[in-house]
Amino acid sequence: MTTSLFFLLIPPAIAAVLAILVRPYTRLVGWVSVVCAAISFAASVALGAAVVNAGVPDDLVALSALWRVDALSALLAVCIAFVTLLASALGPGLDAAGEAPAQSRQFRIFMNAFAFTMLVAVTIQNVALMWVAIEATTITSAMVIPLTRTKASVEASWKYILICSVGIALAFAGTVLAYFDFVATAGEVPGALNWTVLRESARLLHPQLLQTAFAFILIGYGTKAGLAPMHTWLPDAHSEAPSPISAMMSGVLLAVALYAIARWKAVVDAAVNPWFTNSLLLGFGLLSVTIGAFSLVIQRHYKRMLAYSSVEHMGLVAIGLALGPLGTFAALLHVVNHAVAKSMSFLLAGRILHRYDTTEIGRVTGLLRVMPWTGSLFAVGILALVGLPPFGLFVSEFLLIRAAILAGRFWVAGVVLVLLLTVFASLITHLNRMLYGEMPSGVEIGETRSWPVVALALSVGLLIVLGVTLPQPISMLISQSVRGVIR
Amino acid sequence: MSPLSPDAVHTVIDDLGALLLFTMILIVAAGQIYRAIYSVAAQSLLISIAAAVLATSTGNPDLWVIAGITLAVKAILLPWVLHRVVQRMNVRREVEPVIPIAATLALAVAIVVVSFQLSASLGPVRQAITGNALPVGIALTLTGVLVMATRKTALTQMVGLFASENGIFFTAMAVTQGMPLIIEIGVILDVILAALVMTIMVLRVRSTVDADIADLDRLRG
Known about the structure:
heterodimer, A: 3 domains, about 75% helix, about 0% strand, B: mainly alpha, 7 helices, globular
């Protein structure tokens, strides 16, 4: 497993360093970075397989003093590496024609550094170093949002870095509080900030202090996860970023922040009645779904539409985490499904933007005739995102509602259902306006660079497989993850 | 045997905390960007001194390293960079508050009161914490956020962010008597990188669009 971890983390780092060293930018650097992303993805799958095969019921697979990969880490690592591979393969800097070399170079440096920081965040054992890695994801991704140097994109990036730095500072305050309590009760122990050690000794800590710490941590990482009302940076950053970066930020970065919350929840739940963390998560989750749903109704830009849809989906994941084992299973499955569906949709949105040169829904018309394949895949992506069968998100949303009912929280189930219907109605209306109607004059007709479309069709296949059969390795990985965070 | 008694350390940390709050008030009250930059530099200097005091009393060598890094990076390097940006790029010298400075000052006072209330409510746990480090840290952090929210110019917002991180750093240090060194270094590294990225963005906005990051109105929706 140590080998797999090595091949998971090192390739993105190599790709980033290579992109820094090679000046001026050549296409070879781009292709090397794609190969590195592929190696990293293969390693993540191997890691997942190793965790499932090891079948350690009680997670906790420590690899060294610094690293530890359990089922939950492996699950997130697979998602991150998959989306990174897509973003790398469809990002700028691979074609002979097109993008400016300086932009391609900048993209390759920071995209790979961004992937590296996310992978470190989910595999590191120490909660404070995980914090450092998550803060570093903000910096690396903020660098690449203003790739096109428009005023709007620089502003979006600025807002992102300010709001997330403050949020993440609060998460650090929470981490420090928990650490202080640990040191005060148990003394200076090596590895005092490791998940395992913290959780084992959580019962000895002061519940009151841990509650305060969790409130800080939830607001802090919740800011990064796009939970309302701290989500205000998200629509700007996700819509102004280059599409491959939007795909990574929306598809997996939000999930990484929720991963941190899930880990801390496991620690706090060992000391405090889970009712406390559950109510907080339910509150933020429901608010996020509500705000996401109603913002979707009035959306006029399709990239912002996808961004608000992420707020909604992260809200659903937060609700799931609060609903016991079945809810957590649904939440983690939802993370996987959302990563696939949202990254695909953002990458397609990038193609649409490239062709129509506008982000307004009202000015993108006749998409199905202008770009038949891109249009239909985009439609599939949206249909998956609203939770229609046979796609994976249907299953996870269904399980979520079921978990709410089984937990006796009927009103949660009811509210979520109503909000999901709102999302459904508004997204389908927007989609309808884009797909049909008169083609605007002056827009070129037909697909160009069609191989990305093939790659994205694979995502659709994946979503259908996840929805129809839910392959056993994945469900085993998820159930092991659930056992890792819930006792 | 440490040369300082625990009581003496408490007193010194409390005094430094009071001075930190004073620098924070200076930042809030500053009408010119230069003053805000000097105030945040003074604040970082105080934190470096606090680290040195704790290093002497606990005999933890890591804290000396932290004191040194804080002095070099936060008290000298970052303020110098900000100062250069103001000078070279000819950005606006006024802080351009969204609401009047007097009103922000009143809010800052309210934040300080609330912070002390909040940490008093933590009850028995609080007694183990060095002096008033916790309320001071919370107050610094929240006031930093206040500065970010109520100032229009990019550089003043950066000063707010640094002040905010100073608050967290001070609490972390005083409360735990030193986090593990690798973590403190990671935290400082993140601050440096964030400052670098933000400086690049400020310069980029100057060079591409003839405007400062003054309003974020266009991105609402």
